[in-house]
Amino acid sequence: MAKTTRVLSVSVPVSDVDAALAFYTDVLGCELVMDVEAWPGARYVEVLPPGSSVGIVLLPHDSEIPIAVRLGTTDAQEAHDRIKASGVELHNAEVLRWESVAPMFSFEDPDGNGLVYLEDQAGQTPGE
Q: Are 14 and 59 in contact (CB under 8 A)?
């Protein structure tokens, strides 16, 4: 069985990333941990609520980045193989291995909720 180590982050679909970022930081007191262009035109913004280890990813409704719950796993390849063998349709034929990003892949649960597995390195904090 694929081992889930923890919830890393959850996505929130937003109409305006900058307005949402201002709300989450200025009103709710969250800390900005990441604001990057994942690839051209794909902005990834993550905030961290005070005292939490689970980040909130602010994504436009039409984002190519999956609006999903991001889960840690000890071994992304092993998790990918086991989930594929169970008959679940994966969004990625192979584990994605990008420079400076943990190995990952995405899929949906039986109700269509987006899930992303990222290889969880011990001691890693949100935004790393």
A: yes
